[in-house]
Fold each of these.
Amino acid sequence: MRFDDIVVKAKESKKVLSVACADDDTVIKACYDAYRENLCTPIFVGDKKKIEEIIEKNGLEEGLFEIVDEKDRAIACEKAVKLVRDEKADFLMKGFVDTSVLGKAVLNKEWGLRTGNLLSHVSLFEIDRYHKPFILTDSGFIIKPDLDMKVNIVNNAVTVMRKLGVTNPKVSILAAIEKVNPDMVETVDAQNLKKMNTEGKIKDCIVDGPLSFDVTVSKESAKHKKVESDVAGDADIMVVPDIACGNIMAKTMIYWTNCKFAGVIVGAKAPVVLISRSDNEKNKMMSIAFAASIGKF
Amino acid sequence: MRFDDIVVKAKESKKVLSVACADDDTVIKACYDAYRENLCTPIFVGDKKKIEEIIEKNGLEEGLFEIVDEKDRAIACEKAVKLVRDEKADFLMKGFVDTSVLGKAVLNKEWGLRTGNLLSHVSLFEIDRYHKPFILTDSGFIIKPDLDMKVNIVNNAVTVMRKLGVTNPKVSILAAIEKVNPDMVETVDAQNLKKMNTEGKIKDCIVDGPLSFDVTVSKESAKHKKVESDVAGDADIMVVPDIACGNIMAKTMIYWTNCKFAGVIVGAKAPVVLISRSDNEKNKMMSIAFAASIGKF
C-alpha cells in the first residue's frame, strides 16, 4: 500500500480526531486541511480563547468544530484522552504540549489508553529510490531503547505494517556493519532480536541484523559483501539503534531526498499524530491520514 | 573548494601512494584509474603472486608499478607504513586487511606515523541540495567517542577543512534536538564542546550544538524553531554521536541522494585512503584525490 492508497483508505471512514492542547497555529491549520480533504473531524481541547484567536487570525471558518475549553495542559491532555476512551473520538493529536505530558495522560492507569504495549514512534517513508514504502523506528519517542524495548518497537511496527496490508514484513536491525561486535551494543541486540525471531518469540515477520544501511536497501550491495539475507534490499521496517540516529537519518531523507513522510506514536489503543512546525503541508496531512488508517491497536 | 577543484589540485603534484595489502581487485583497479587520471603512482605492498594475478585477470598493464612482496598482513602494513616514514611515498591506502591491523601499524611507536593526534575518519560530501561541500565525522573509524575523542575529531576535521581553504569552519554537533537532555549524552557533549570553543580550548572554528539536522542545514528551520546560531543552515562540519549514526547517515546520502563522496582516515602524519567494495568508481577516485590533496598532517 502506497501513500496515495493510505489517503484514499483514510477517507473511506471519516474519523473523529481529538486534539490535545490545540492552541497551536500549525496544528489547527493542519486539522482544517485534513477536514477539507475528508480525512477527519477534529475536536479541539485547549485554551478556547487562544484557539478562536488562531482560527480568526488565519481566516478559517469559525464555529465549525467543537471546542473543549481547558487551559491547564495536563488536564487538557486528560480530557482529550478521555474523548477517545469514551469513543467520542477515534484518535489523538499532539498540540502545544510536551510529548511526555501527553504520553503520561495516554498511559494513565485509570482512564488512559494502555494496551500493555510500549509506546513507540513509527515513521512511514515513501522515497523515489526505494521500491516500496517502509517504516523507520524509533526516530521520535524512545531515546535509547534496550533489548526488551526493541522487541516492543519491532512488534509495534509489525502491527502497523499488517494494518497496511503487509503480512510477514522484513525487518532490518540497522548498524554500521554486518558483524557482531561487543563494543557496538546495537549489533549484539540485533543478533538477539534475530535469534528471538527464529525461536518464534518475535512473530509474524522476518528479522535480520546487524545489517548496514546499504545491505538493507540494496541486493547488489549484499551480493558484493557476500551477505545472504532474505531482508537484504527488501526491508519493510528499519530499526535504528537510538533516537539520535533515527532522527538524523529521517531528517536527511526529508531535507535531501524526494520523499513522502508520516510520523505517528503507536502502542496505545489509539494512535497519536505528531506533526512538526517544520513539516510541509503535504507531510502534515500524511501523518493524519496514516494515523487514521492505522485505527485502534 | 568543490570536488572538481580538489581533483585539479591533487593532480598538480602527483604523489606516491603506498598500498598496504594491495591484493584486492577493487583497490588495484582504483589505483590504476587514479594513475591514469594523473592523481598518484601506487606502490603495491602485499602478496606479489596474487597482485599479479589480479592485474592479469583484469587486463591491466603489467609491470607498471613497483610491487613489494609480503604475504604476512601485519608485516605488509609495516612495510607500507615505512615507505611513508622514509619519504618514498606520500600517503597510504588500505587494501585487503582489517582497518585495526593497519591502524596499529600506523600508530607503532618506533616506526609509525604518530602525531599525538587521535586517528579519525572524515567523509567529504558534495550534495545537490546543500550549497557547499561538508565534512561528516566520524562515520568510519571511532565506534563511540567520548568527549575527549570528540575534541580530537573536531580538531582533525578543522585541520582538513583548513587544508581545503576553509578558515574558521562552522561545526555542528548533531543530535535529535536543540536542548540539553542528561539522558542524551550527545547533547551534553555538544554543550561541553560549545563551551570549550567559547573558552578558546577548541580553536579556529565556530562550534554549536546540540543542533538537529534540520537546523544544521536549513536557516528556515532554525527560524521556525527560534534557534539562533551562526552555524544554522551553514555548517561546514557535522559531528555525529557515534559510528552507527554516521554510517547510516552517510549511506542514506550515498544511496538515496545525488552526491559525491570521499572518505579518509586522518590524524597520523599521512592520510589513509579507505575505499569500500560498494563505492562506485567516481567515489573511489574522489577518496584518493581527497587524501592526496590533504597531504601531510
Amino acid sequence: MTPAPPEISHDPRTGLPTTTARPTGPAELAATMARAVTAVPTLSGVAPGERARWLHAVADAVEAAREELVRLADWETALGTARLQGELTRTVAQVRFYADEAAAGHFLRLEHDTADGQTPGMTRVNLPLGPVGVFGAGNFPFAFGVLGHDTASALAAGCPVVVKAHPAHLGVSNELFGLARSALAAAGAPDGTLGIVHGFEAGIDLVRHADLAAVAFTGSQSGGLALWRLANERPVVIPVFAEMGTVNPVVVTPLGAARIEEVAHGLVSSFTLGHGQYCTKPGLVLAPTGGDLAARVADELARLAPEPVMLTQRIADGVRSGVKALQDAGAALTLQLGGDGAGWSAPAAVLEVPLAEVRAGSTLLEEVFGAVVVVAGYDAPEQVLATLAELPGALAATLFAGPGEDPWAARWLPALSSKVGRVVLDGWTTGAPLVRAQQHGGPWPSTTQPTATTIGARALERFVRPVAYQGFRDELLPPVARRSNPWSVPCRVDGNWTS
Amino acid sequence: MTPAPPEISHDPRTGLPTTTARPTGPAELAATMARAVTAVPTLSGVAPGERARWLHAVADAVEAAREELVRLADWETALGTARLQGELTRTVAQVRFYADEAAAGHFLRLEHDTADGQTPGMTRVNLPLGPVGVFGAGNFPFAFGVLGHDTASALAAGCPVVVKAHPAHLGVSNELFGLARSALAAAGAPDGTLGIVHGFEAGIDLVRHADLAAVAFTGSQSGGLALWRLANERPVVIPVFAEMGTVNPVVVTPLGAARIEEVAHGLVSSFTLGHGQYCTKPGLVLAPTGGDLAARVADELARLAPEPVMLTQRIADGVRSGVKALQDAGAALTLQLGGDGAGWSAPAAVLEVPLAEVRAGSTLLEEVFGAVVVVAGYDAPEQVLATLAELPGALAATLFAGPGEDPWAARWLPALSSKVGRVVLDGWTTGAPLVRAQQHGGPWPSTTQPTATTIGARALERFVRPVAYQGFRDELLPPVARRSNPWSVPCRVDGNWTS
C-alpha cells in the first residue's frame, strides 16, 4: 500500500505551500483514541471547576502566543491581521466563557425529587458522553479551529476531544494543539484530554471509531451531511452536531425601508466581512423595489472596492460558479468587482431578482460562500409571507423594521423565526455575540440537530446525556448527583431552585 | 387500485376479532395534516397555561369514561382489569402532569442577556416545533397510547399531534381519540389540535409529510429504526424520538447477594408483569453463582405459575422463538412454564448462562418481549466490569448492593450508568415513576436520541427548539420572549434566575 500523500496548506495570496502534515494512520488513530478513552474517568470525575482551571490555562497559553499565531494564521488564510487579532481575542474569551459556564454548573441540570409514599427518590443529572471528534472550520482558524467553540465546550462538559485538523491551516492547527497540550499537562489534565489527527481518511476512521461518542462539525453542507451519514451507518449511532452554511435572509419591511441607505451600507460591510466567508453572511435580502437597494449596494460596494482572496482554490472557484448559477436561476448581475488578483482571488458581487423567483428548491436559495448577495425586490408587502414559507432552514436572519410599531414586522416575525435559530433586529447576523442566551444553530439543513447551539451557554449541553438515579443513597452516588451537593451545583429540588 | 384491507384488532384470549378500522387514505391524511398546520399558530401563540386547561379537560374526559375504557382495553389486550385500572389512573395523572409542567414554564428555558457596550441584548426561548406524529405502543393502551406520554407532552409543549393508532387496540384508540377531540373542542382548543390515522401506509406517509416536524415512537427496535431511517431520507430531516425495547440488566453485587431471596421474589414479579411486555423488563441478571439465583427464580416462578397471554400472535410466536434463540446462544433452560393455553398464550421462562458467554453481539443481549429472563452467574466479581463494557445501551438497569458501603457497587455504577438512562438501586425498573427528574430513555439502541426522555419534566423539551432574538424591542417580540414577562415564565437574566 502506498502511503497517503501529505496534506498541504497554502498561502492564499500566492497559492504557494505553507505547511505540510503527514496523514494519521490507523495505528496512530487507535493510540490517540485509546488515550482519549483513558482520560474519560478523570474528565468526567473531577468537579467542573477543575476542568475550568485547565481551560483557563489553555486560554493563557493562546494569549501568550498571540503574535506568532496571528502571523501564521494570516499567512495560511489571508484573512488579515486586524481580523485575526480580533478573532484570537474572541477565542481566548470563548475558552474562558465555557470554562466559567462549566464551573457555574447550570449545564448539569441537576434535579432531585424526594421520595414520598407513592414514588421513590429520583435524581437526574447530565453526564459527559465520552470522546468527541471535532471537525473545525476553514474560515475561523481560531474561533472554530482546534481550540474553537466545539473543543472548548466539549472539554468544559467533561469530554476528551480528538480534533481533525482543517487542511487549510495546518500550521495554526498544529501550533494551537501543541500549546494547548502543554498547557493542559502543566495544569494537571490527563494525557488524552486533547488529541489531533490529520488527513481525510483519518477523519472518516475517527467518526467510525467504536469509542467515539459524538461529532461536532462546522463547515459546508456537503461535509457536514457526509459525516452525519457516516455516523448513522455505525453499529452504535452517535450524534453529529453539524453547523453548516446557509443563505441567511434579511427582510426589510416597508417602514424599515425608510433607512435604506443605512441598510445598504451595513449590508456591504456584513457580506464582505472575511471576504464573505461567514456561515452567518446575509445572502438574500427581501426589500421593497422602491428603495432601489441593489443599486445602492452596488454603489457602496464600488466605493469599498474589496479584493477578496479566498481560503482555498476550491472556494475561489466556487464563488465564480456560484455567481453564474445565481444568474442561471434568474438573478441579474448588478455589479461584480475584482477576482483578477493573484493567488485565490475571487469577485465580490451583488445580484437582483424579482421576489416571485425565490421559490423552494431554487438555486437562489443555495449559499455562495463568498462576498455575494442577492437582493429580491417586492412590489407589495402582501407577497412576502408566501416567500418566507419557501425559505429553507438557516442559522440566522435579520429584520429591518420601522421605529415603534411595525405591523409587517409583527406579521413576519413568526414566519421568519420558524426558519432560523436567531433573528436580529435592525442589525447584522455576522459576528454572533458571545453571550449565554446565544443560539447558533437552526432548522435543517443549517444544522443536523436543530436544538443544539455551537455558541452560548447551551453549547455544553450537546456533549452530555441525562441519567436518573432511583432510590439511591447519597454515599453510593457520584459527587455531582449527591443531595449533599459537594460541588455546590445549581439544583432543583421537587421543582424549586435551591440555588 | 384495490383498497387496502381493514386493520383488525383481536381478543388475545381467543384470537377472535374485536375492532376493525379502515386505513386512512392519502387525501384524508392530507386533510388531517392541513388541519394540524392550521392549529399551529394558536397552539404556539397561547400561554402554556391555556394549553394546560385543555389538557386537564382531556384528563377529566378520560376519567369519566374509565369503566368503558378499561373494559374495552382488557378485551383488546388481555392485560387484566386490575392492571388497566392502574394504567388509566396513571395516564390521567400523566396528562395532568404535562399540563402543569407546561403551565410552570420551565421547559421554555427563557433567558435574557442585557445589552452592554460590547454586545447587543439577547433573548433565547424554546418555541414549539410544529405538528408531531405519535406512534403509540401496543403494550400500554393508555399510558403510551393515543393520549400517552408523547401526545400529552407534545400538546403541552404547543405542538398539534397526529396519532398513528396501534393496530392491537383500535377500539381503545378510537374511543380515546373521540373523547379527547370532544374535550379539546369544548375547552376551546382549535380543530386540528389532535388527529388520528390508521394503517401501515398512512403511518409511512405521515412520517414523509412535508409539514410534519417530529416523530415520537414507542415500541420495537425494528419499528423505531424503520421510522428513523424514513425520517432521515426526507428532504428536510426531522427528529425521531424512538424509545425501543432493550435487555435491561440487573447486577447483584457479592454483598447484595445476601438478599438473594428478596431478589428472586422481586425479579419474578417484575419480569412477569404485564406478561413480560414492558420495555423496562429486567432481561439479564448478573449475580454470584453461589446464590443459585436461577434455581430460586424457577421455584418462585413455579409457585406463581403465570399463564401469559400476549398482545398479538406475533409477540406470542416471538417468545417461543426467543427462548429457542437464547438456548442456541448457550443459555440453559432452568424452567419453562405454560404457553399451551387458548388464544395467544406464550410460556414464561428462566434461563441460565455462564457470565463469560455474555459478549457484545450475542443473542443473549437481544430482548425477548415476554416473561423471559436470563441469569448470568459470575464466579468472581472481578469478571463483572468487563461484561458491563459488553452490554448494549438500554433504558434502565438495577443495582442490588449491600447495605452501607459496597465497594463493588461503587466500582460498577459508572460502567452501568454509562449504558442506561436510569439506574435503580435495590428495586425494579418496571414501572417508571412519574416524577420530574425521571429519565426514560438511554443510549443507542434503546433510543434514537439519547438526550431525550419519554417520561418526566424534560419530555416536553423534545418538541421545542431554541430561538434567539438579538437587539429586539419588547413590543416586537412574542409575549413569551418579552422582558416584561406577561406570562410570568421562569427566567434567567444575565445568568441569574429571577423566578
